[in-house]
Amino acid sequence: MDRMWSYRRPASVRDVLEDLRTEREIAYTTVMTVMDKLHTKGLLKREPVGRAYVYEPIATKEAYTAELMRHALAGSGNQAATLVHFLERLTPEEATALEAALQVVPPGSRRG
Protein backbone atom coordinates (compact mmCIF):
# COMPACT_ATOMS: atom_id res chain seq x y z
CA MET A 1 0.00 0.00 0.00
CA ASP A 2 2.87 2.39 0.70
CA ARG A 3 3.92 2.10 -2.95
CA MET A 4 0.41 2.79 -4.18
CA TRP A 5 0.05 5.80 -1.88
CA SER A 6 3.41 7.16 -3.02
CA TYR A 7 2.40 7.19 -6.71
CA ARG A 8 -0.53 9.59 -6.23
CA ARG A 9 -1.95 8.23 -9.49
CA PRO A 10 -3.45 4.98 -10.75
CA ALA A 11 -0.89 2.24 -11.41
CA SER A 12 -0.89 -1.08 -13.20
CA VAL A 13 0.63 -4.31 -11.95
CA ARG A 14 3.43 -3.72 -14.47
CA ASP A 15 4.10 -0.23 -13.02
CA VAL A 16 4.43 -1.63 -9.51
CA LEU A 17 6.49 -4.59 -10.73
CA GLU A 18 9.01 -2.34 -12.49
CA ASP A 19 9.25 -0.15 -9.38
CA LEU A 20 9.80 -3.13 -7.07
CA ARG A 21 12.37 -4.66 -9.41
CA THR A 22 14.68 -1.69 -8.80
CA GLU A 23 15.16 -3.15 -5.31
CA ARG A 24 14.74 -6.91 -5.75
CA GLU A 25 13.66 -9.64 -8.12
CA ILE A 26 9.96 -10.38 -7.92
CA ALA A 27 7.49 -12.23 -10.15
CA TYR A 28 4.67 -10.50 -12.02
CA THR A 29 2.19 -13.03 -10.62
CA THR A 30 3.24 -12.20 -7.06
CA VAL A 31 2.54 -8.49 -7.54
CA MET A 32 -0.72 -9.27 -9.35
CA THR A 33 -1.89 -11.56 -6.53
CA VAL A 34 -1.10 -8.99 -3.82
CA MET A 35 -2.83 -6.19 -5.71
CA ASP A 36 -5.87 -8.41 -6.32
CA LYS A 37 -6.05 -9.25 -2.60
CA LEU A 38 -5.81 -5.56 -1.70
CA HIS A 39 -8.67 -4.93 -4.13
CA THR A 40 -10.72 -7.77 -2.61
CA LYS A 41 -10.14 -6.31 0.89
CA GLY A 42 -11.44 -2.94 -0.30
CA LEU A 43 -8.13 -1.09 -0.10
CA LEU A 44 -7.69 -0.62 -3.86
CA LYS A 45 -10.20 0.12 -6.59
CA ARG A 46 -9.49 -0.95 -10.14
CA GLU A 47 -10.60 -0.17 -13.65
CA PRO A 48 -9.96 -2.18 -16.80
CA VAL A 49 -7.61 -0.53 -19.28
CA GLY A 50 -7.10 -2.67 -22.33
CA ARG A 51 -6.39 -6.21 -21.17
CA ALA A 52 -5.15 -5.17 -17.73
CA TYR A 53 -6.34 -3.22 -14.70
CA VAL A 54 -5.12 0.02 -13.21
CA TYR A 55 -5.37 0.27 -9.45
CA GLU A 56 -5.80 3.20 -7.11
CA PRO A 57 -6.09 3.45 -3.32
CA ILE A 58 -9.64 3.82 -1.99
CA ALA A 59 -8.43 6.17 0.78
CA THR A 60 -5.36 8.20 1.62
CA LYS A 61 -2.77 6.74 3.93
CA GLU A 62 -3.87 9.23 6.59
CA ALA A 63 -7.54 8.25 6.32
CA TYR A 64 -6.65 4.55 6.44
CA THR A 65 -4.44 5.08 9.50
CA ALA A 66 -7.19 7.07 11.22
CA GLU A 67 -9.62 4.19 10.62
CA LEU A 68 -7.13 1.74 12.17
CA MET A 69 -6.84 4.01 15.19
CA ARG A 70 -10.63 4.19 15.54
CA HIS A 71 -10.90 0.40 15.40
CA ALA A 72 -8.19 0.01 18.04
CA LEU A 73 -9.92 2.51 20.31
CA ALA A 74 -13.33 0.90 19.79
CA GLY A 75 -11.93 -2.50 20.75
CA SER A 76 -10.01 -1.29 23.79
CA GLY A 77 -12.73 -1.93 26.38
CA ASN A 78 -11.98 1.31 28.25
CA GLN A 79 -11.65 4.16 25.79
CA ALA A 80 -10.81 6.81 28.40
CA ALA A 81 -7.97 4.74 29.88
CA THR A 82 -6.69 3.87 26.42
CA LEU A 83 -6.62 7.54 25.43
CA VAL A 84 -4.80 8.47 28.64
CA HIS A 85 -2.13 5.83 27.97
CA PHE A 86 -1.85 7.06 24.38
CA LEU A 87 -1.46 10.70 25.44
CA GLU A 88 1.15 9.81 28.08
CA ARG A 89 3.34 8.30 25.38
CA LEU A 90 3.20 11.13 22.83
CA THR A 91 6.50 12.64 21.75
CA PRO A 92 6.74 16.45 21.77
CA GLU A 93 6.34 16.41 17.97
CA GLU A 94 3.24 14.19 18.21
CA ALA A 95 1.77 16.44 20.92
CA THR A 96 2.29 19.47 18.66
CA ALA A 97 0.59 17.63 15.77
CA LEU A 98 -2.33 16.73 18.06
CA GLU A 99 -2.70 20.34 19.19
CA ALA A 100 -2.70 21.51 15.56
CA ALA A 101 -5.31 18.88 14.64
CA LEU A 102 -7.53 19.99 17.53
CA GLN A 103 -7.45 23.53 16.12
CA VAL A 104 -8.81 22.17 12.82
CA VAL A 105 -11.40 19.84 14.37
CA PRO A 106 -12.17 20.95 17.94
CA PRO A 107 -13.36 18.39 20.50
CA GLY A 108 -17.10 17.88 20.28
CA SER A 109 -17.39 18.63 16.57
CA ARG A 110 -18.29 15.64 14.45
CA ARG A 111 -17.60 14.77 10.89
CA GLY A 112 -20.13 12.58 9.29
Automatic annotation (TrEMBL):
SUPFAM superfamilies: Winged helix' DNA-binding domain
The entry's keywords: DNA-binding, Transcription, Transcription regulation
Domain of life: Bacteria
GO biological processes: negative regulation of DNA-templated transcription
InterPro entries documented for this protein: BlaI_family, WH-like_DNA-bd_sf, WH_DNA-bd_sf
Family according to the record: Belongs to the BlaI transcriptional regulatory family.
Protein name: Putative transcriptional regulator
Species this protein is from: Nonomuraea fuscirosea
